[in-house]
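Replying to the earlier thread about multi-chain prediction with a worked example.

Input:
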Amino acid sequence: MSLSYTIDLPKIPIGQFVSDIVDWIETNLGWLLDGITALLRFLLNGFQDILSFLPPLVMIPLFGILIYLVTRRDLRLSLLSIAGLLLIWNLQLWSHAMMTLALVIASTIIALLIGIPLGILAANNDSINAVIRVLLDFMQTMPSFVYLIPAVIFFSLGNVPGMIATVVFAMPPAIRLTNLGIRQIPVELIEVSDAFGATPRQKLIKVQLPVAMPTIMAGVNQCIMLALSMVVIASMIGAGGLGYQVLVGIQRVNIAMGFEAGLAIVIIAIILDRITQGLIKTEKAQE
Amino acid sequence: MEDEYEPEILIKVQNLSKIFGSKPERALNMLKEGKTKNEILEKTGQTVGLNNISFQVFRGEIFVLMGLSGCGKSTLLRCLNRLIDPTAGSIEINGNDIVTMSDDEIRDFRRKKAGMIFQNFALLPHRTVLDNVAFGLEIQGIDLEERHRKATEALNLVGLAGYEQSMPDQLSGGMKQRVGLARALASDAEILLMDEAFSALDPLIRRDMQDELIELQERLNKTIIFVTHDLDEALKLGSRIALMKDGEIIQVGTSEEILMNPSNEYVERFVADVDMTRVLTAQDVMKKADPVISCKSGPRLAARLMKEYGISSLFVVTQHRLLKGIVQIDDVVEAVKNDHTTLEKIIINDLTKIDLSTPLGDIIPIIADSKYPLPVIDQDGKLKGIIVRGSVLSALARKESEPIVA
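Result:
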């Protein structure tokens, strides 16, 4: 410490360097950013339309039935979920909740579409794994709203940058747990597929993925939960939904508004968690 | 081999070496210079897995690779279907060198020629028993109906009919390994590679599985390479046994050759704690039945033979050496006194007869209770030799390296 007082070292311009890169991307890869924006917006609008197509009083029982099925007939949980959703409706937060849900679903799907193949790659190749692991450690220790900055720079404000930040934030567990699940498969099972003459593709589809599925599903669950938490934070850069209600509550010091929106987020979080946990258990029960 | 048929070579392994590490060439050269495994590990950091191994496997035999853990037996087995790529040497199977095969060729070889069975069963947990057995066929692209038909046949073969729709974790260890066996049999491969296949089973189940394997092998006439660390298992199953140590084959031979003529101290130590009563049979411990007496002779000749050889009983046979019974010295003396001319009245017919292949373990309790030596007969009832207490003891002491039969 004392050294920096005595000798005036020049500052290494890391921040400037990153900023230069961002500028370059903006000027040269604008077409790509526009394409991504269009795609994400299409996906998000699609889910939003589906979720708000039917009136709440039809959607809520449908959610109840879905939960009843995936949790293998957990009637209590289904009824509690219906009660929770009715509460959200009653609080007049239904459309915001569906916006949040659409953001979560769309972001999660993209995160999984990128994350699971990356996890498979990492599991089958040690050098790729080494690179990805460093990246993931970096991504996961970086404070989550730092992701908001590049998202805003590249995609300005609104739902799309919110989704980008969410995808980046929610992807690591999908990669990690897919990688882990495949690496944890007993050596003998891999030898079985080789010894019976499976091609690498057959090995992946018939042995690696099915055997690793419970772990991969745990990754999916994590991915969804992280997506939900980031979608809320992303309201800071203009993502809509319940998070935005919380943000407005903070800005206006409106406790009632903030609390109601927060409660709705908790209800959605619990429902999403139980549904994916239910999927994991179904996987395990099949074994 | 003293067999009556000319054995046909199915697998011919020549100068096979496997070095684990990044620079195998250097280690290989050092091996050729005669450096030891440890020297090579110290100087190059490369581990010698297999060192210049050559052997042959005949069609239709159970060839056992046997040795302690770390001796390279599993590595050698995995070289035979190239789950592990050997560093040097050749493996000819049916005349084709599998070491030089392309990926596609080796895949085809694995699908159709060599089934593998694993120590911990290695069943796919998300599949039913039937779909596990059909796995190999599925990989080959055979359609659902056909592969289920073949898988059902294979399950019947191993005695698991009715368990088609069970999941692997519902089965006991023995049943799981039957599924493993059925999976290897389903694709009708002529070679079965068995890696410590029964080692994870408890002893009773294990013995049953060994018996069944022998029976299956006789019925289906597969060629089996069986890896084990258990000498008793090796002796029971093996047509021939290859004893391995430190990545080398120390001795190849039938169980008896290995037991009776251990090629070096290592083998000798290895076989030292074998349960000899299970390995040796009546044939190995019997003495030549000499003298015997014809049933037409009289008591005087019997008395003279007994006196001459210093024995108290004598086996009575027909002209063709069919066993009639035994006479005892007291009865013979009585018969001489009473001027009998034949042995007929004093022959004791009520004898415990021992078959040539009866294990020593079954003979010991019989001889302990018997007043007379035990006659050993072949299938036709001919007297082949006799067993006295002394010959059992000396067989167990195993001082002789030569067969005891004179």
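The radius of gyration of chain B is 27 Å.

Feel free to reuse this layout for your own posts.
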